[in-house]
Amino acid sequence: MKSNEIRKTFLKFFSDNDHTVVSSSSLLPEKDPTLLFVNAGMVQFKNLFLDIEKRDYVRATTCQKCVRAGGKHNDLDNVGKTLRHHTFFEMLGNFSFGDYFKDDAIAYAWKLLKDVFRLDEDRMWITVYKDDDEAALIWKKVGIREDRIVRLGEKDNFWSMGDEGPCGPCSEILYDLGENVGCRQPACAVGCDCDRFLEIWNLVFMEFERSRDGQMTKLPRPSIDTGMGLERIACIMQGKLGNYETDLFSPVLRRLEDISRSVYGENEKTDTAMRVIADHVRGATFVINDGVLPSKEGRGYVLRRILRRALRYGKKIGIEKEFLYDLSGAVVDIMGDVYPDVRNNHPYIVRVIKGEEERFLETLNTGMRVYDEFVKEIKSKGGKAIPGDLIYKLYDTYGFPVDITAEMAAEDSLSMDTAGFEKSLEEQKERSRAGSRIKGEAWAEGHVAALRDDVRNDFVGYKTLEADGVILTMVRDEQVVEQLDEGEEGEVFFDCTPFYAESGGQVEDEGLVDGPSGKAVVINVIKVKQDVFAHKVKVTMGSLKRGDRVHLVVDKEKRKGVSRNHTATHLLHYALRTVLGEHVKQSGSLVEKDRLRFDFTHFQGLADEELHKTEDIVNEKIMESLNVTTEERQREDAIREGATALFEEKYGDTVRVLRIGDFSTELCGGTHVKNTGEIGSFSIVSEGSLAYGVRRIEAVTGKGAVRHKRKLDNIVKHISRLSNTEPDRVLERVEGIIGELNTKSNEIERLKEEIIAHRVEEAVKNAEEKNGAKVVTMYVPDAKADDLRKVTDIIRNRLKSCIAVVGTREETKGMVVAAVSKDLLSTYSAGKIIKKLAEQYGGKGGGGPQIAQGGIPGDKIKAALKSVADILSD
Ligand code: SER
């Protein structure tokens, strides 16, 4: 069976058994700061296990994208070394939320493997948690031989998502790949770390929730979470010895063979490198596809590590140039039908990978040299470890992920001073106060309470801006309350609402609540979940009570402005892709009443010409007065047909597709104008860099554009009035004024020099003689330290043999510079002169024998200059 067929068969088997087929969620967990990446199928259902949230189904089945390259389940170090571990993989799963439990979970699993996938029973082994007699008994009942049921402890047979969250004992199904696979030791048995007994399916009997402090509490209802690695079942069903030889990987390896001119399967070292590369390019492709960019922390750092690790392995097999971006094409060929967004985003993915490859290859070579030099030195001194500060330097300056340094150290038989590295890293973090925690918010208490109450609202705001709704739940200070009184603020959940909740970059609606016993203003609307909106209100009169039927009215002006800007972001997205290329992808946006902000992926600043073209295209589409239409579609179908999906959005299975004319199709839940003509006009206000590879455009539309234009007009008018010129000649006039100013400043400079030369003459004339040496002192108004030095140069040039001391003051601060010509250095020192002046007048300073500088109070400067000759005779 091809992998595509395995996926389908699995999902169909469970859907035939009353499971709802749910699409994979993004790799980025929703509102869960405890996780870097989604690492199992159950993550998107976490709240259902915890009974915080309810859905229309109690059984589900998925094929979930997972990444295990950080956090509790981290397979990164095993990738390449084994034939079965991956950073990115797909997990097939079936779930019961308080519905069936162990009996059915085991029966379903066994039936699918035996009757549908037709696996060889003789090769199957089962593990159960050491105390789980019940599971062992059920397995026996379905027909497993007793000697094939192995009991293992916490490490193997107790599963939890992370350090906190739902968890429970589990039972694993393993497949014996045969004596010739793995460690080949006679003692090899179930539980061995090698590749022989391949764990294909894990059935978790979710019964507990673990809290952050390790406390275990029983879940309200026992549930089921199972996970089967698609790559592993494909390996077995396709009769291969490792995942890399399945149809999920082999085309990547073939392409890699072409690039590297190595052949897979001939040499263990090369094979390991090829596996690492094939795995990592696939992982990177999917992680980038879900909106992560390489960076120094969190998810971005994981991405950077896997890309750089793959590159280093590339170097090991003789690839010296960038190649991963090209190899990602082979991944897209395999996965593009199942994950059409990977295909749509491919031009963008290529740019991100290539950018990182270019940067890394630049630093890699320098970093390797630095490493080699240090290692030579360490070894020559008999050292056994790479010091922490070197690991840090390679990491910080040369961008070497620590695991790469560790691998190189292992090759050189050196250990790593990891503690020293951690210390340097901590120090750096202290300095920059930039933690590496995952940024992300958790669920607010009050929102969890609303989810528990199973409140849901019908959103009617696409069609109407006024509606009646019943108050289902109210929250104040994170607590559910029955009533909100005049002057109080709180969050209200209605059964029906015309208010748009902030999401997808579009700001929330504002408006009014009119109830039987009071009124309130809606200040903010937060989307807790699909169809669960928290309306933040302030009661302005009387009170609002749970159960009240109220009239809800959206502020039309704000909604209209926001809708203009929202439709304009879609036009802008289209225009940028037309002008700059297909790699442009929206990476964020802010859609407000008066303006819009649009963040997108692109690797250099836009030229004026590109900005103008973009602006023109948007305005043309506005002038064409095109209809904007929406329709509901199945998510995968819409994406397959080319609709653009955004990173920042969490889409349900049914999506709203927004079309403008025949050129723009995006998945979008926002509010829009009905016709592009309503936007009026569009102007770009600014363009700049936001982060590496991400640019930001700010623009205005409609009334905002009129205001913007008026503001600029006023500026021009004002300048023209000030410069006494007609507005259309103001540019020439201002250029003329600037020219004049330049000529005048040059003239001033020249005059200043003349005055100084004149003063120097005066000062030279008044010079005193001390033991045959001429002592020239001079006060220079409005001078900087550099000017003073120049004046001493002029004096020395003029007299050849002399001592020159010049000073200036700026308010309370005075400054003196002393210089001594070379021929007098045996008797005098500029440094000493300054020191003496400083001592006498309360200041400080110093310098060399030829030139020195000091600061003394401003009001003492003139007296100090007068006393120089006396000081010299001391
Ligand atoms: N959550 C379990 C695992 O990841 C089963 O899906 O193994």
TrEMBL record:
Residues 1-711 form the Alanyl-transfer RNA synthetases family profile domain. Its EC number is 6.1.1.7. The keyword Nucleotide-binding applies. CDD domains: AlaRS_core. Binds 1 zinc ion per subunit. Keywords: Aminoacyl-tRNA synthetase, ATP-binding, Coiled coil, Cytoplasm, Ligase, Metal-binding, Nucleotide-binding, Protein biosynthesis, RNA-binding, tRNA-binding, Zinc. Its cofactor is Zn(2+). The keyword Flavoprotein does not apply. It catalyses: tRNA(Ala) + L-alanine + ATP = L-alanyl-tRNA(Ala) + AMP + diphosphate. Its main location: cytoplasm. SUPFAM superfamilies: Class II aaRS and biotin synthetases, Putative anticodon-binding domain of alanyl-tRNA synthetase (AlaRS), ThrRS/AlaRS common domain, Translation proteins. Belongs to the class-II aminoacyl-tRNA synthetase family. Catalyzes the attachment of alanine to tRNA(Ala) in a two-step reaction: alanine is first activated by ATP to form Ala-AMP and then transferred to the acceptor end of tRNA(Ala). Also edits incorrectly charged Ser-tRNA(Ala) and Gly-tRNA(Ala) via its editing domain. This is Alanine--tRNA ligase. It comes from Syntrophorhabdus aromaticivorans.
